[in-house]
Write a structure and sequence with these properties.
alpha/beta, Metallo-beta-lactamase, Chain A, eight-stranded mixed beta sheet, 20% helix, 19% strand, globular, binds zinc ion
C-alpha cells in the first residue's frame, strides 16, 4: 500500500495560549500538495504559478476576507467585523467512541477553534444537516455565550434546532448548566421543501446568506444516507441519534462584496439552476457514486472548485503528529478491524483529482454552457486563505 507520509512540526506558539501548539504542517508527499506526488493544487502556490489573483495563506488570521478549512465540512469565513462558521466539527471521535454516547471534546474545541477566533465577531453558525460530524460541537460553541442575545444565530433544519435546544439548564452537563442552557438560542429553522427550495437566512455584517434545499448523499458501499428520522429530546446522544431531517442537506450561498461562494455538503446538488453563477464552489466529494458535479460546473460556473470532506475524520486532531492519518490519505484503513471496503476510503481522493479533469470538466465543457474551465484548488487544514484579491477584481 502506498503511504503518504506527512509530518507535523510542533514548535512555538501559534494557536492561542494552549500548551499544544501548531506552527507549521509539512504536506510533503501528499498528492495535491506536493510537486513530487503530482499536480500542485494548493491554492496559494497555484495562484502564484498561474498568474491568478494572489491567494495568500497563513496559519494566523490575516486582514480582510479570509477562509479556512477546519476539516470534514467545517469552514470559517471571516472579515474584519464578522465571522461565520459552517459545520464546525472538531471533536472527531475515534470509531470505538461511536459505540457509546459521544462526548464533545471541549478542550479540543477550545484549543483548535475557540481560542483562534474572536467570539465577539461570531455572528452565525450554518449547519448543513444534523449528523454528528456536522452538528456535534455546535452546542458547546453556543454555550460560550451565557446571554442568549449575544449568541451567534444558528441556521439549520428542524432536527438541528431540536438537538441544540435540548441542551437545557439542569442537564447535569457542567458547561451546559454554567451557560444557563441553550433552549433560548436564536435559531433560524429552515423548512426547505419542494415548494420552498430556497430561503434567505439573513445578513451578517457584510455577508448575505441564502439557503438551498439539498439532499444528503448516499454512501457508495451501502444504499443508505446515514441515520434519519425524529431526534431525541435530550442528551447524551449516540452517533445514531444525530438524524437527518427528510434526507435534507442544506446548501449555503455566502455573498460578500460581490463575491459568491457556495457550500454544498453533497456531491448531488438539487436545483443548481436556482443558485446561479458563483466564484467558488466548495463541495463534499465523498460518496459520489451518485453525483451531478458536471451539472454543478455547468450551472454554477465556478472559477474555483474546492473539494471537501475527504479527510479521515475518525482521527482526532491531536493525531497531527501523524498527519497522514488526519487528512486520510493513508487509505484504505479498516474500521473496527473489519474486512471489506473501508468506511474511511469513501472519499477516493486521488480518483477524484483524475475524475475532475477527465470526466466532470469535459462533460461540463461539452454542454457549451461554460466559457472557461473551473480550476481545482485545495485548502490546507487550518490555514487561512485570503480572498481579498478575489474581491478586488470586481
Ligand atoms: Zn459528514
Amino acid at each position: 500500500m502506498k503511504q503518504f507520509l506527512l509530518l507535523l512540526i510542533l514548535a512555538g506558539p501559534a494557536f492561542g495560549n494552549n500548551s499544544k501548539t501548531i506552527t507549521e504542517i509539512s504536506y510533503a508527499g501528499v498528492p495535491g500538495y506536493d510537486a513530487a506526488a503530482g499536480p500542485i493544487l494548493e491554492w496559494s502556490s497555484a495562484s502564484v504559478e498561474n498568474a491568478e489573483p494572489n491567494i495568500k495563506s497563513a496559519v494566523k488570521a490575516m486582514p480582510g476576507l479570509r477562509i479556512r478549512w477546519l476539516g470534514t465540512f467545517g469552514y470559517e469565513i471571516s472579515d474584519a467585523q464578522t465571522t461565520i462558521l459552517i459545520d464546525p466539527f472538531i471533536t472527531r471521535p475515534k470509531p470505538a467512541e461511536l459505540l457509546k454516547p459521544i462526548v464533545i471534546d471541549t478542550s479540543a474545541v477550545q484549543h483548535y477553534l475557540l481560542s483562534t477566533v474572536d467570539l465577539n465577531k461570531l455572528a452565525a453558525i450554518l449547519v448543513t444537516h444534523s449528523h454528528y460530524d456536522h452538528l456535534e460541537d455546535v452546542p458547546f460553541i453556543l454555550a460560550q455565550f451565557p446571554d442568549a442575545n449575544n449568541r451567534p444565530i444558528v441556521a439549520g433544519d428542524p432536527n438541528t434546532a431540536r438537538i441544540i435546544q435540548s441542551y437545557k439548564h439542569g442537564s447535569g452537563i457542567g458547561w451546559v448548566d454554567r451557560s444557563g442552557g441553550l433552549a433560548d438560542s436564536r435559531i433560524n429553522i429552515l423548512n426547505l421543501n419542494n415548494d420552498n427550495p430556497t430561503v434567505e437566512v439573513g445578513t451578517f455584517g457584510r455577508f448575505t446568506i441564502t439557503a438551498f434545499k439539498g439532499q444528503h448523499s448516499r454512501y457508495d458501499y451501502v444504499p443508505w444516507r446515514g441515520p434519519k428520522g425524529p431526534v431525541k429530546d435530550k442528551p447524551p446522544y449516540n452517533y445514531w441519534d444525530y438524524k437527518l431531517y427528510n434526507n435534507l442537506s442544506i446548501g449555503y450561498l455566502v455573498e460578500t462584496n460581490g463575491l459568491r461562494i457556495y457550500f454544498s455538503d453533497s456531491p448531488l446538488v438539487l436545483n443548481p439552476e436556482l443558485i446561479g453563477q458563483v466564484d467558488i464552489l466548495i463541495q463534499t466529494i465523498t460518496s459520489r457514486a451518485e453525483n451531478n458535479i458536471s451539472t454543478c460546473l455547468e450551472e454554477l460556473k465556478p472559477n474555483y472548485y474546492i473539494p471537501a470532506h475527504y479527510d479521515n475524520f475518525f482521527k482526532p486532531l491531536d493525531a497531527f503528529s501523524k498527519f497522514d492519518t488526519v487528512i486520510g490519505l493513508d487509505l484504505p484503513e479498516n474500521i473496527f478491524d473489519s474486512p471489506g471496503p473501508s468506511l474511511v476510503n469513501y472519499s477516493r481522493y486521488n480518483e477524484f483529482l483524475n475524475e475532475f479533469e477527465t470526466q466532470y470538466v469535459p462533460q461540463a465543457v461539452a454542454s457549451k454552457k461554460l466559457d472557461r474551465k473551473p480550476k481545482l484548488r485545495v485548502l490546507k487544514l487550518f490555514y487561512y486563505y485570503s480572498l481579498e484579491s478575489l474581491i478586488l477584481k470586481y
